């Protein structure tokens, strides 16, 4: 028995892996396969031209914070990455995929990571007679979409996470922004009325025109007519009204598809040689469209394909809204405990409207967090995220947990100070220890740390914490009177 | 011995009784001779315990005055007598008895009447207010076990009345409340929802958020049903009004005394009207402009006036206008509300705990209102936390001595 048989499941080598779709999740899978020492080739095919890029950070391009070049994902060592190659068919019998330019790639394992297409609502006037979208209307899924945003006045349709982040980014770029949404408040599928209201008020305070309880009735040249007759003028109309998983390949190949490609807990489709991950995949227990979820799926799949045990982990449902000045996070699926017949266990709610803070936690009978919504409580969000990830029970004193202090007497921190093992960048699983090491090896800025450890390149919300760590490390390095003998003296035994 | 001064009290309810009791026990030297004038044909009785009357309690059971007070030479009670006016110039009270009553000090304790919604049919035979012993006796005679009864008013009193009608007289109560939820003055929305679950589980039917449109009569002109604003019709022969009270302040205007914005004799934090020798206490008093309808504030007012009559200076701001501490006396509900339950204090924060599923009568709820530092307890709303209520009441206005979980649940869970 050599070391290899411990890592590759006997009889089921993953072999040559072809990944269709080189977006963040497909890219992540390729990278993780390499990381886990995958034996066999990895081919990564993507239909978009140009470099692979981190789609989640598109809104940073919109607000001018990042250049498109900043979004580029580095090439995966050991993988064959092909861009501008559209896969047109899957031959499951021969285990081959064919492309538009006549290539044919053989696979032992095929992974569909084709993502999702922006859904454009069927509003009269949006399309020309020939079925094309009229000028100025776009989804927000690609760099090309970003380039289509022009002019001063932008109307964003849909106030889910993407719509809200898009509206905020456009507002930060100085534009006149309106946000139209049929629900009673933004992110109404995630947030209860109180949290939704706080979010709406914050958006209004940024100068965004928020039209909730409204939908688009008709599009005319440069004008949007709402269902109540209201009019909004637009130079660009951005549709953030949901996405449709790209399932054409799967359907054509005879795989089981509902809204997305149906998969089991190990991302297997109805064909054991074909898996699906990310926005194109559908599993009853998972929430589609979240980066954390897609990346977790990629991590799990890479471990499975390289013979590692998954350790019983499931993809997390974590949403951190990237809206500056508002710390809003959702863990798990809060709607579940509000639905009929649900929830044993407790619900703990904290409301501080005068300071814009709110939290609602659903705790299961074993004391662990089932789901949570937090606004304006960044420390608690970080702590609860860790406890949620690790499935550890919450401490008894929830008020202290939420406010980071005991309710009794002096303000002392109930929680232990950050230790080396604390994960600061969850997207990339980077600990304080790793960061400290990188710092000591010369990565002395946020940018440098991002290059060496990949922190802040996921959802981007760890940036503040990392900056704080940098400040602490910088202070710690200031010369201090030493009372110990220098190292050489000790080594030489004196 | 100097001649005692004359105190006249108009109204002989629970607050007047407390005033008399308190004054007599502290007035060692007999400074005051008291004449209390009461409209009802009986001595003061425990109005709060009227639901026991539904169960058959006697007048003796409900009576408040003990033999000591009854034999007291310095207390004269004139029952079945109504005060008709106050002559401030001559300092006398006019009554239905005839001769004017002179006073050195006058305390108004006229109480309140049950509010009857001004809808068609509200005074038909079969519609009864719920306020006095006579009212309750009338309800008892009209009650038929197994039959429906519509109780108008889903506040504290309405719910206690409905439950008592069910428990003691075997009737089938329908509670109609115009506000969107039960006990809106004391409870927040989650607590009101859980209370509704518990009450329904106990056999009460509830209609919230719909006002009463009219009371319908049959061919004989007696009540045969009620109709709500949304068209719902409830068949019934008995309608009980427990939809709030209105202070009895008709003596104010002729006597030149100010009234509160929403009625009642306007008094300051020491229960003083603008007239230096006239006070008002209990349900008829608008303490700093605000009327109360529960017994605890009334008792505090009575004690404050007794003190002043015995020479205690009226210093400082006096009583606060909006202290609340209410417990719903319906078995199995364990519903209580203390202090600033609606977090109206600027900067206040709220912390709530719900244990159990939404629709279960076992589900418990506690909401603590804290100051902006989240340290001092300002108020609380409780459902199903009977044990924690007295503890929280004692912490009101002070820093939490331990974690909320510990206060509510005792031992740490796990």
Beta-strand fraction estimate of chain B: 25-35%
Q: Let me know the CATH homologous superfamily of the largest domain in chain A.
A: FAD/NAD(P)-binding domain
Record field, number of beta strands of chain B:
26
Low-confidence stretches of chain B: none
The outline of chain B comes out as: globular
- How many domains of chain A? The number is 4
Largest sheet of chain B: 5 strands, parallel
**Radius of gyration of chain A, CA atoms, in whole angstroms:** 24 Å
Please bin the fraction of helical residues of chain B.
10-25%
Q: How would you classify the helix and strand content of chain A by structural class?
A: alpha/beta
Strand order of the largest sheet of chain A: 3-2-1-7-19
Q: Structural class, judged by helices and strands of chain B?
A: alpha/beta
What CATH calls the topology of the largest domain in chain A is FAD/NAD(P)-binding domain
What is the general shape of chain A? globular
Protein name (chain B): FAD/NAD(P)-binding domain-containing protein
Pathway (chain B): Nitrogen metabolism; nitrate reduction (assimilation)
Organism (chain B): Streptomyces aurantiogriseus
InterPro entries (chain B): FAD/NAD-bd_sf, FAD/NAD-binding_dom, NasD-like
